[in-house]
Amino acid sequence: MKEGNFIDYVKLQVKSGKGGKGSAHLHREKFVEKGGPDGGDGGRGGHVIIKGNENLWTLYEFNFKRHIRAEHGKDGSKQRSSGAAGTDAYVEVPLGTVIRDTETNTIINEITEHDEEIIIAEGGKGGQGNWHFKSSTNQTPRYAQPGLEGEEKAITLELKVLADVGLVGFPNAGKSTLLSVITAAKPKIANYEFTTLKPNLGIVEYRDHRSFIVADIPGIIEGAAEGKGLGYRFLRHIERNSTLLFLIPCDVDDIKKQYDILVDELKRYNPELLDKERLVAISKSDMLDSELQTELNQQLQKDFGSIPFLFISSVAQQGLQELKDELWDLLNRKPEDKQDL
To answer: What sequence ranges are listed for the domain OBG-type G (predicted)?
Structure first.
C-alpha cells in the first residue's frame, strides 16, 4: 500500500559480503632463506543487519533501493596479518516492521524496539592463512583457504503501524474527520470512499499532559479479509493496536449489522484481534434530535449488550471528551478488569 511518501510493503534482495582469502605467504627476510608460512587469515564478509529506528514511519526509501549489499572481507597478508572485516550494511526500518522470507512467506523476525538489530544475512567466514596448516610433515604449506561466500536472500518488509487505538470502520464513516479534530493530524478528507489510502497517526492530548496515539486505518469493506478492496494490506495495521474504536455513522440502515460485518472481517483475518478492547462510537450524532437519540440509545443497549458505545459528532464537537475518557480507561484497564466480549 502506498500513497505519497507512505510505503508499508517492499521486497528487497540482500546479499552479505564474501569472506576474504587466507594468505599463502612464506616468511622472507635478509639472512632467512627458508622462512616458515606466515600468511594471515581473510576478514569476515560484512553482515546485512536490519535495525529499528523510532524516528522512521515509512519504508519509503526502499522504493528506490531494492538491492542491499554488504562489503567483502579483505584478504589476509604476510606476518599473520588478518584482513579487515567487510563493512556491515545497515537497513534501518520503522518500529513494527515484520521481516518475511519472500519465497516461503514465513516470518523471520520483527522489529519492535529502537536500535534493535537483527542479522538477516551473515557475512562469509574468512579463509585461514597457510600458517594454520603447518605440520611436522608439511613445514611449508603453499596453500590457504578461500573465503566463504556470503548469503543472498529475498526478503519482504511489512510495516504494522504502532498505535494505541485503531480506528475501524467502513469507507466514508468519518474516521479522518474524527482524527483531525481530536489530534493535530491533518489527514485528507473528502466525501468519497477510500479517501484514506494509508494509515494516519495522530497524538491525542489528554488530561494532565498525558497522551495516546490513534491510527486512522483505511476503511473496511466486506471481503477485506480475502483481499478485496485494500484487503489484508491495511488489516495488518490493526494487529498492533491495543484498543479498537469502531466508528459507525448514525444514519446507516442498521448500526448493529455494520458492527457485526466489521467484527466478522477482523475475525476471519485474525481471530486474536477479537481479544482486544473495543468501543463503538456512533458518529454524526448531531443529525439526531434528542428524541431520536433516546430511542436509538435504547435500541443499541439491547443490540450491543455489554459492548460500550457512545454518541459523538466530530463536526459539532459533541461527546469528544467523553470519547477520550473512555479510550483512556480502556487503554489503562488492568488485565483482570477487561471486558468479556
So the answer is: 163-332
